[in-house]
Amino acid sequence: MLNFLSLCQSCTSLSIRTILFALLLSPAISFAESDSTYTEEKGAEYEMNDPFEPFNRVMWDFNYKVMDAYIYRPVTENYVEFVPKPGRKAINNFVSNFDEPSTFVNNLLQFNFKYSAQAFFRFSVNSTFGLLGFLDVADKLGVPRRKETFSNVLGRWSVPNGPYLMLPFIGPESTRELVGGVVDGLYFPFSYLSFGEEVGLEVFDGLDTRESLLGQEGLLEQSLDPYLFVKNAYIQYKTFVFLEGDNQLNLIESQQSDLYDDQLEEFDDFDDYLDEID
Among 119, 94, 75, 66, which Cα is nearest to 246's? Predict the structure, then answer.
């Protein structure tokens, strides 16, 4: 386990965290396309072209076939095996607590005082009564986590996403996200962390999401064009989060469940039809 984690210190876990999370959103693509808000308000700040596709495809193969196969997946499997679930939940709470100050500032920049106050409340309560954030006390008090990034701030100022990029180790990004990520890293407490400490936080953040995706790789492998599948799902996911906010991810999960149920009913009807033919 420690050997695997030491390998991860030389890279971030953003790629598999973002790439594979798109797998769970594939049924939501049609939902996002049909959403009236999306179709009416879609503009340059939501779009992402792919002028560097040849380079991006090479990087996709490297990230998924090398980094995931030999580092991300083995590390996650060891992490799940040796760290109990309550411990993994506490670690994820601790890592997520670091995002609250940037969420506070990014909401202020949009004059969204309600969510800004909630972020300040969450950080204050969880950092004290929540034992440095290991316990999400604020959530139990009715104030759920709602992350806001500087990339979204730029988007609401009509700054376009820019080209789609598949970066080695980092994974799918837009130029706006790259800029936004740099700015978010300047906020407290990230500005006081060393590079190694920041990488450590990203590793544990990625482990949490990779854990939830263990066993889901078959969806990607069955795709005719995995690169295109991930790119489209990623862009749709980013658009949906940008338009609706992180609180709507529960709605995505609900839509996924409904779509899968509909698909199962269609398969059952098809089986009945075949039985009648026989």
Answer: 119
Which distant-in-sequence residues (6+ apart) come within 8 Å of 28 by Cβ? 236, 237, 240, 252, 255, 256, 259
Q: What is the pLDDT of residues 195-227, one digit of tens each?
A: 888 888 988 888 887 887 787 777 777 888 889
Residue with tokens 């890279």: 11
Contacts of 173 (CB under 8 A, 6+ apart): 165, 166, 167, 181
Distances (CA, A) of 69 to 25, 74, 120, 215: 22, 7, 39, 13
Coil, helix or strand at residue 174: strand
H or E element: which one contains 172? strand 171-174
Measure the CA–CA gap between 150 and 242, rounded to whole angstroms. 11
The alpha-helical segments, DSSP class H, found in the chain are: 2-8, 14-21, 28-34, 36-41, 53-61, 73-82, 85-97, 100-109, 113-128, 137-140, 150-156, 175-184, 195-212, 217-221, 226-244, 249-277
Tokens 């066993």 belong to which residue?
215
pTM for the model stands at 0.70
